[in-house]
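Thread amino acids onto this structure.
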């Protein structure tokens, strides 16, 4: 490993964000992103992803804790950080009467050392749309234009807030391919996403936010490995759950039944599957619809969100739950900081 690979391009320590009315959207989170890594922030709606990314982008100062991007405070030292970062916001908001080429040229005029506009349009697959007005683009094409503008400054660090929302399957795959190529070229990418398969396939590491806190973090494999695997099958005619080997001895930590269908949850997949199959062989029965699988990131995500909600509701007295404030408030705030 080179020294660069150890370098933390993004460092977040005990980060907090409290909005005007006193609502704490980010509650002391800590993580770091190494150079050339793709890091995904996942979370349910309102978990605090955008609130966090905006602090990394320097759009607002943290209410507590510390953020460093490329070794600088992105809010207080904006001039040092901004030229080296690319930002793709959730809503680009460019003048809709300009064409794609005009928009890209206009934006390039604001970026020092900008790549040629035609080159970035080519990279995101928008060359054929150069003369089309922004207002005539599809939702997915607008997201690609957002991405093109974020790439104009050839950034060392790229922030992508839900980069593939609104893209069809092909557009999403193209964007993933582009993000992978950027990583190969050494770009550090922090993205938020609602698509778990996007995080699973793309991210080197990820963090799952829930109610402003990190509920789980690690590589996609580490996060899923912490969740139980699943074995499901149909009980043969004439057999009952009690006829199986004792579930505890099989390493089963939970089970559900739906008619004859049985679903076992286990953290010892090999042991549980072996005991079950040896039992079936010995009993001379066939297990219909047998399905043995490790947890997917989606199952891990749902499990983590459920656990976090349960522990939060027992820890908090009623009445302390957040009130959701309209996104419009924050969009206005975003514009104010961006200005
Ligand atoms: N300006 C604001 N004032 C008060 N509360 C706000 C403001 N902006 C956001 N919030 C609240 O902070 C919480 C986190 O919002 P945030 O947009 O960061 O979540 P998110 O994880 O990005 O959600 P989504 O997946 O829906 O985009 C939400 O409860 C939201 O209502």
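Threaded sequence (339 positions):
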């Amino acid at each position: 490993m080179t020294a660069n690979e150890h370098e933390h391009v993004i460092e977040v320590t005990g980060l907090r964000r409290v909005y005007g009315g006193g609502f704490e959207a980010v509650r002391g989170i800590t993580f770091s992103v190494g150079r050339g890594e793709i890091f995904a922030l996942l979370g349910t709606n309102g978990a605090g992803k955008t609130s966090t990314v905006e602090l990394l982008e320097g759009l607002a100062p943290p209410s507590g804790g510390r953020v460093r991007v490329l070794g600088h405070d992105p809010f207080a030292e904006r001039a040092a950080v901004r030229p080296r970062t690319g930002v793709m916001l959730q809503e680009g908001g460019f003048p809709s009467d300009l064409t794609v080429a005009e928009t890209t040229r206009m934006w390039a005029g604001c970026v020092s050392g900008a790549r040629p506009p035609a080159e970035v349009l080519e990279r995101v697959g928008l060359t054929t749309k150069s003369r089309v007005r922004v207002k005539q683009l599809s939702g997915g094409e607008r997201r690609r234009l957002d991405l093109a503008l974020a790439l104009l400054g050839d950034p060392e660090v790229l922030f992508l807030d839900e980069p593939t929302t609104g893209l069809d399957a092909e557009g999403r795959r193209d964007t993933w391919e582009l993000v992978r190529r950027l990583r190969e070229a050494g770009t550090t990418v922090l993205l938020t996403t609602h698509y778990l398969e996007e995080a699973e396939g793309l991210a080197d590491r990820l963090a799952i936010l829930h109610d402003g806190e990190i509920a789980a973090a690690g590589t996609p494999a580490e996060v899923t490995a912490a969740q139980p695997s699943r074995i499901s099958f149909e009980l043969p005619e004439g057999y009952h759950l009690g006829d199986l080997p004792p579930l505890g001895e099989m390493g089963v930590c939970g089970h559900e039944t739906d008619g004859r269908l049985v679903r076992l949850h286990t953290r010892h997949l090999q042991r549980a599957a072996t005991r079950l199959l040896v039992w079936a062989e010995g009993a001379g029965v066939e297990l219909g619809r047998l399905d043995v699988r490790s947890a997917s990131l989606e199952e891990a995500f749902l499990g983590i969100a459920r656990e976090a909600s349960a522990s939060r509701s027992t820890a908090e007295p009623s009445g302390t739950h957040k009130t959701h404030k309209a996104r419009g408030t924050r969009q206005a705030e975003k514009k104010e900081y961006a200005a």
